[in-house]
Backbone:
């Protein structure tokens, strides 16, 4: 017991964005514990926004001072170009989502009280609110930051759990349609826990194969370990199931409509943007860094998954009558488009970099548009809460032209119409895929884009060319939602008309690919 | 393959023991009626009759059990640290303090939210 174990070297400065977010989340829990109830939300709102802004500033500063070329924290975390770009994206999207969360009336007073019961009455008169939302969001964002930057499978698993557990809780806190919200939380939790188990089992099998959970070492082992192919293939498949579940790729998409519909809409916005970005970052890192040498084995499967995801997302979206479910299926379809970019991995460094930068740009563009679209959904309200049924949106263009125009812009961006951000995102990903020889996949992508355009345009037609119902929903736009809408419109238009700066940034970030 | 023979033997022994004890118990055990024996175990909920609107059920036992798990895990990490305290040095101490502080924050939250009160 006299020998000393060398202390690990940890580059705290490089991990600072995550440390700031996690630290603020812990302070948030202390606020929950010790601050009086009437002060809590007044402390949480600036704390959360300042934290996310501060972490963003640190991320920018890191990107400017030089990107490390080796993994940090003893190889557990890789703060490389793509990771920094994804961090920046997640932090901005989370900031915008928190603006949406700040507006009153999205969250339940007391989640445990039955609607209409005496306990519910008491919670309402006491002015109780679940201000735990803020620390939970910060924990989730911290997990989202670690997830795409994790350079070994165990760190990635921890990140996956830190990201998911707060989201499971947040899903169940909707103020209206309580049962649907709690159902969403339980479904997300059960399926999410199941997929985490798949991920962990895959990790164990890959460790059995490679003798390491480090992504780069697994890649090295692909060339040197023989006769263990069963372990390898089953491990990769299970790992893939865990990751594909998180991005909602078919056939693991079943949770997405239910969860997106039932969750409080600002949380849906956070999940549909931040979680998707984080999960794609992690998926790319695992498949390109750890399994890059196994490309010939997983690419055909990924082709199938991408095609299935696009087709299922686009076709099932047509049959939806609920706006949130429709956006959920649209998110599934977009996951499929992004998967096209994942397949575009080859032996050519330059081509890989352009595929990666295309994906990064797509994630930014899609993230902003999604948050904006869900922000609009929060504003159209009936007596019983948000009006989700599409028939309630009929004639909105005549009653509130501005809201309808903004929503139409987002839908056109989803459809990938030129002069919106969605066009350049899709164009860049399809171009990278064609360069990588995945032309048939691009054909399927274009066809499903056309199918998807149908249901986006159908909503626009419904808003502008139908007569409004006499008892139509009212439109309420609180201050935060205004800001979110403005930011999202700005991002969608600027990225659509003048995308070069962000394309360049994504290109620079992707240039060195993922570090090993 | 021979490496696994003792494990197989152990598995057979364990299965045999389980089967033997379960099948012998009804014949050898005394049968004294007690109401508590027919109740749902500890934290269990009576499945029938269904209360109106789903009803509310106490979470006291669940919260206690969850807290137990939290501190159990804390101990699990404290043990190896205590054993290797000298060799881990200052770094180990700092990391452990950080870990305990984090758990303490959760504990403070539970305490302030009256998670420690039984009634």
Residues:
């Amino acid at each position: 017991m006299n020998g000393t174990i060398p202390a690990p070297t940890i580059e705290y400065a490089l991990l600072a964005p995550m440390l700031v977010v996690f630290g603020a989340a812990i302070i948030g829990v202390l606020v929950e514990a010790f601050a009086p109830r009437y002060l809590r939300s007044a402390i949480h709102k600036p704390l959360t926004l300042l934290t996310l802004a501060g972490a963003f500033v640190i991320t920018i500063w890191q990107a400017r001072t030089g990107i490390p070329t080796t993994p940090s924290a003893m190889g557990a975390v890789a703060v490389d170009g793509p990771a920094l770009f994804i961090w920046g994206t997640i932090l901005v999207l989370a900031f915008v989502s928190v603006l949406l969360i700040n507006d009153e009336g999205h969250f339940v007073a007391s989640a445990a009280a039955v609607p209409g019961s005496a306990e519910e009455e008491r919670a309402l008169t006491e002015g109780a609110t679940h201000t735990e939302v803020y620390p939970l969001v910060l924990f989730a964002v911290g997990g989202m930051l670690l997830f795409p930057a994790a350079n070994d499978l165990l760190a990635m698993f921890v990140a996956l759990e830190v990201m998911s557990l707060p989201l499971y809780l947040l899903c169940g806190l909707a103020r209206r349609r309580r049962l649907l919200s709690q159902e969403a939380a339980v479904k997300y939790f059960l399926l999410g826990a199941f997929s985490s188990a798949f991920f962990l089992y895959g990790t164990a099998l890959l460790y059995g194969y490679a003798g390491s959970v480090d992504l780069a070492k697994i890649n090295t082992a692909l060339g040197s370990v023989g006769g263990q192919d069963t372990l390898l293939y089953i491990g990769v498949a299970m790992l893939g199931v865990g990751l594909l579940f998180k991005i909602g790729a078919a056939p693991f998409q079943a949770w997405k409509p239910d969860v997106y519909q039932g969750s409080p809409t600002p949380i849906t916005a956070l999940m549909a943007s931040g979680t998707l970005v984080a999960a794609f970052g992690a998926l790319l890192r695992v498949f390109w860094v750890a399994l890059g040498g196994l490309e010939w084995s997983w690419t055909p499967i990924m082709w199938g998954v991408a095609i299935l995801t696009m087709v299922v997302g686009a076709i099932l979206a047509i049959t939806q009558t609920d706006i949130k479910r429709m956006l959920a299926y649209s998110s599934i379809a977009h996951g499929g488009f992004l998967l096209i970019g994942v397949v575009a991995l080859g032996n050519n460094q330059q081509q890989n970099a352009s595929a990666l930068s295309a994906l990064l740009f797509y994630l930014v563009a899609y993230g902003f548009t999604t948050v904006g679209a869900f922000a609009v959904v929060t504003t159209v309200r009936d007596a019983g809460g948000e009006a989700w049924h599409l028939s309630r949106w009929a004639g909105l263009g005549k009653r509130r032209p501005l809201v309808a125009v903004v929503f139409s812009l987002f839908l056109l961006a989803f459809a990938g119409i030129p002069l919106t951000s969605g066009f350049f995102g899709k164009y860049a990903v399809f171009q990278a895929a064609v360069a990588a020889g995945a032309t048939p996949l691009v054909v399927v992508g274009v066809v499903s884009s056309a199918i998807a355009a149908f249901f986006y345009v159908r909503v626009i037609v419904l808003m502008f060319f139908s007569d409004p119902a006499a008892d139509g929903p009212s439109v309420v736009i609180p201050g935060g939602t205004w800001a979110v809408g403005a930011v999202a419109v700005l991002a969608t238009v600027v990225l659509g008309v003048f995308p070069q700066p962000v394309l360049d940034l994504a290109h620079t970030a992707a240039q060195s690919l993922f570090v090993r | 393959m021979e490496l696994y023979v003792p494990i197989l033997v152990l598995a057979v022994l364990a299965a045999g023991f389980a089967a033997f004890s379960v099948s012998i118990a009804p014949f050898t055990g005394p049968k004294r009626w007690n109401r508590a024996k027919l109740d749902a175990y500890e934290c269990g909920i009576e499945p029938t009759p269904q209360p109106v609107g789903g009803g509310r059920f106490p979470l006291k036992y669940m919260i206690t059990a969850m807290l137990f798990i939290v501190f159990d895990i804390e101990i699990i990490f404290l043990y190896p640290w205590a054993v290797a305290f000298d060799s881990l040095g200052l770094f180990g101490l700092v990391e452990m303090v950080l870990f305990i502080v984090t758990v303490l924050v959760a504990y403070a939250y539970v305490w302030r939210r009256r998670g420690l009160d039984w009634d």
Q: What stands out?
A: The interface with chain A takes residues 53-54, 56, 83-84, 86-92, 102, 105-106, 108-109, 111-113 of chain B (CB under 8 Å). Chain B has one domain: 2-112.
